[in-house]
Amino acid sequence: MRDGLAREDLHASVSDPASASMNFLNEVSARFPDAISLAAGRPYEGFHGTDDLHRYLRTYLAHLERLGLDPEQRQRHLLQYGRTNGHLGPLIARMLAQDEGIEVPEQAVMVTTGAQEAMVVALRGLCAGPGDVVLAVEPCYVGFTGAARLLGIEVVPVPETADGLDPETVLAVARAVRAGGRRPRALYLVPNFANPSGASMPVPARRRLLEVAAEADLLVLEDDPYGLFGLDDEPRPALKALDTGQRVVYLGSFAKSCFPGARIGFLVADQSVIDRQGRRTLLAEELSTVKSLLTVNTSPVAQALVGGFLIESGCSLRTALQEKTRFYRRNLRTLLTALEQSFADQPGVRWNAPDGGFFAVVEVPLTADEGLLEISGRDYGVLWTPMSFFHAGDGGRRALRLSCSALEPAQIEEGVRRLAQLVRDRAEPR
Amino acid sequence: MRDGLAREDLHASVSDPASASMNFLNEVSARFPDAISLAAGRPYEGFHGTDDLHRYLRTYLAHLERLGLDPEQRQRHLLQYGRTNGHLGPLIARMLAQDEGIEVPEQAVMVTTGAQEAMVVALRGLCAGPGDVVLAVEPCYVGFTGAARLLGIEVVPVPETADGLDPETVLAVARAVRAGGRRPRALYLVPNFANPSGASMPVPARRRLLEVAAEADLLVLEDDPYGLFGLDDEPRPALKALDTGQRVVYLGSFAKSCFPGARIGFLVADQSVIDRQGRRTLLAEELSTVKSLLTVNTSPVAQALVGGFLIESGCSLRTALQEKTRFYRRNLRTLLTALEQSFADQPGVRWNAPDGGFFAVVEVPLTADEGLLEISGRDYGVLWTPMSFFHAGDGGRRALRLSCSALEPAQIEEGVRRLAQLVRDRAEPR
């Protein structure tokens, strides 16, 4: 190996184009540390401190004591290997019932090492053969398309509208896939305040999507990291809450509601699985083998942190997280107002007005590629994400994603002013 | 989905035979909770308490402070998303240098969600196409063969001898694979006190194996969870310590040295990777894309626990873990003595005498299958693991693995007595 391994001999996922793009973004961010980053979609850092770690652990241990575990059992619960599907099923099921009206047995919940692992588990379990493909909204969160590439599963894009996915388009794509001799196993989407587009699906479209899933014999992978952070209190029912036909596998994350460093996510899969002898199990239970082969089980200490957080929240994040909700609302409103102020008079610039979440998309009269991003960081002191990063083909070339989750309002305003200057200086005819 | 999903439509890894076997073992254990488990290979639980969690966190935070991180940076380090390959590279590199004489740059270390994820990352990165296969010692740790199945990678078994893998057999198998038009990318083995066999490779065979790896153009995946727990202080150099040709990717685990609940493992991959433009990177850096698509990054809180443990150990586990080493030595000696006492006069029973680790193998004059295990648990109050679980073919049918890591000596002795009674009662002519 002294001569080295040839990079082209490594698996395609090593050279994943989205990851290469994200690496580029990280490099640019590192080279221009003083630039305002409207690229970073991470949660704001002011909500939790390291003291919380100790308190959450103590809260969870006290909870275990109330459940009747003696000191030796509590120690084993946190320090030993544990149940493959994790310990938080009861608390998460309670949270889903209270916050989302999702009623599932605790055995349908699998705790994962972040929502990323939940995607890998669901993809791997559902796609069995070379003809099994998944549909996914486009533009799409790169972690999903990358996970599919890792497993050699083809992703068929379904273009998004301003109102999120159009169910009839989903049906048409699914039928075309089936007509081509392949089997569409699932559809991936983020129905609330999507990453990257910010788009949300209206309630009637959600209901129709579930009908379409049944017609096309699809499961729906519903990813919902931002659902708590709507601009208003209007109910936006999760697909899983409307899912009377058990078509939806729900993917959840505590990275935004609690904090990312716990790396705790989960999936809810209450579908019946039937073997040839007619025995029935829950899909979440069947998927535990896949989970065990990825990471054995999710760190029970990390689970305990989120467990403590859930207990302190009374298992209702909608009630307990009002400070966070207010913060993200204010930031998104600030972003949308700043866009209005900076771009209202600028020809060829359009942006959407999401109802919540961390992101908005701006269409600009120039090619928003890596080269422009570098100029933007170096000469204008502002970073953003090219929308082309979220497309498999050549879509999104004249659009960019702005994120407002990690900043203070004044930074958002200044960042948008700098972006407007860039666009004014470099606008090019189409 | 009201009618349910057909289990046969799920991916083959869901029905992984080894996992099915392990599930059976867990079920039997749950049904006979009073049976002595010589099946459980988990570490003993008496070494760490929940107070350690708080102390390790504080130790690691103090370490970050000494490194010059201000309170905000320390908070971000633990609670935010973090570097894909983790934070513990410097501490792990120091540990490997002190304990193993392995000298690698900290950038060659990737922190993973347990050694299981390290296996998935290495397998995925190295096996690019359908003709890429891996060789693995047989009998083999089921987590490895299962991870390969998850990724659709074929595992070609290389039979183990009493002295671990024979390098010439490895060479012959690798050549046969290549002659068959496939490409052997790597060889998996546990050179120290293997799971399940307990076998270890003599030092000359280790050196020869590295020559063979170069001749056959193989990488070696060296899994070393038990290396600290030799019966004596004789040096057993890791393959990675002898690896002047950068043929070895080293897989490590803190589940046995620290505790399993942190779910922290790592891989060391200091191989050069060269792209078509001649640019060089380290394999660990290239593999970070794969890692990011599995779990984004390993929980920095969980890393902090192991970080605190490493700092308190002066990054030398061989020095710091003497209590654990003494405990496991005593247990293995107890197991071997008990086997001698219970089985010396029994015809047809043979066992090996490993130089360390958690396991020994007993050959018995009867079929040691799931049926016998159930009888053993119910009527004899002792559990063990059929060796057939660790074979792809029909090997290991009249052998069982005994583990002595999680028990007190008196339990080990009683467990072996019960096992001897079972074998006496049910011995059958071959």
From TrEMBL, chains A, B:
Q: Extract the signal peptide range.
A: none
* Cofactor names: pyridoxal 5'-phosphate
Stretches that traverse the bilayer: none
Q: Which GO terms describe its molecular function?
A: pyridoxal phosphate binding; transaminase activity
Asked if the keyword Transferase belongs to this entry, the reply reads yes
GO terms for biological process, alphabetical: alpha-amino acid metabolic process
> EC number(s)?
2.6.1.103
Record-linked InterPro entries = Aminotransferase_I/II_large (IPR004839), Class-I_PLP-dep_aminotransf (IPR050859), PyrdxlP-dep_Trfase (IPR015424), PyrdxlP-dep_Trfase_major (IPR015421), PyrdxlP-dep_Trfase_small (IPR015422)
Keyword annotations: Aminotransferase, Pyridoxal phosphate, Transferase
Q: Which CDD domains match?
A: AAT_like
Which residue range or ranges hold the Aminotransferase class I/classII large domain?
75-419
Tell me, what's a Pfam family for it?
A: Aminotran_1_2
Q: What is this protein called?
A: (S)-3,5-dihydroxyphenylglycine transaminase
- Origin species, per record, is Kitasatospora gansuensis
High-level lineage? Bacteria, Bacillati, Actinomycetota, Actinomycetes, Kitasatosporales
